[in-house]
Amino acid sequence: MSDHTWDMHDSGSEGAEILRVLGAICLVCAIGLLIYLTYGFIAKVDAVSLFVGCALLAVFVALFTYLLVSPDPLRSGYTERSLAVASEMLEDIRDGLTYEGALSICQRLLSETHAMTVAVTDTESVLASAGSLASDFPPGSPIHTPATHYAIEHGIAQSFTHGVYASPETGRTSEIPAGIVAPLRVRDTSIGALKFYFHHARDVDRTQYALASGYAELISTQLAIHELERQDELVARAELRALQAQINPHFLFNTLNTIAALTRTDPLRARGLLREFATFYRSTLDTSGSLIPVSREIAQTKRYLLFERARFGDDRIIDEMDIAEGAEDALVPAFVIQPLVENAVRHAMRDEGPLHIRVSVQLTGDDVIDIEVVDDGVGMDAGTADRLFARTLGPAEADQSQSGGAGIAMHNIHERIKRFYGPRSSARAVSKPGSGTTVTLHLDLRGSIFA
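Request: output the structure for the sequence above.
Response:
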């Protein structure tokens, strides 16, 4: 078997080849008619024959001129078809280079090239194949051609001729007259190859090489995008786990002290609080999933308020939950509402009088979730409110984050929203000293990494 880097021959595209053939036919016919007409005028052929000859000459000249200067319709149709196939192929691998995606790619490209077999491999074995030799290259069979190993190792497309392959699965010896192998690369690292096997060595021309290389580039680009999305999802999940595992020691000790005090004055209430406290922290530390129903996040928030009312008094915190119909089952990142309520309790309570907290979750169609936490507490100045979700915390917020305060929690919520839902989502706070604070989370599901 011989293999080499492809030498770019001047064979042109398939569409251009058709145009050249048709143009040549028209030119030959036009020359023949011109000779006939010249002879007819000299030999004084009848007028009807001369008229017909002139008409045909005009038709062939017009066709030749059109094919020579206006090949765009054929080329445009060919381009549109190629783009449509490329778009469909990108959908096949949006979940990465899986067996199902690789098989769909092979089946699509088989009809778009002159290949008798199309295969997709990883760095060691075949993922999927389609065509007349597919049974000789089942999923999991090892890579056998030196051209494939070279293409993967060096990241350079290769062609080969006169290949013979003995299938270890069937024992059948298969002749591979010619082939093209294009590497699939992500971040300058080869992760596999796209392979085309042809019936004849003459089929391996500039067009087929360009198609193989172009489709390999498209697949590589989509795989790179998938890798970036996967990395974003992993980072988002890691941030969630870090936030869920972050236990505020002040809240922990205060709640346990409150329960301990109630064991003497109200043992039944203390027992109930202890059960709820165990459920609260079990849910906080649960990292089984990154997205949970709104109803679960609200239940966690209510448990938190249960402990704080036991600590400060039932009349010091009055909450209202306004959950729109259908919003209970909407999925949101875990641990986004309760920290907002905790921030209000810790920093908005006045020395006297109750703190009113209203939590609202509204849906806009199937694409947008708006979460709002409003309190009527002490409020804050506009600068502090603007920095609440900012990347760079001010000195006061930094001090809070160092001591387990709300600053780092707010910042973490903002970062997770951006990672989960993209730039169209947002977190903002509006406040004024003495007039309370409104925190709004705008979650646009159309940009979600889980969409």
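The two ends are 47 Å apart (CA to CA).
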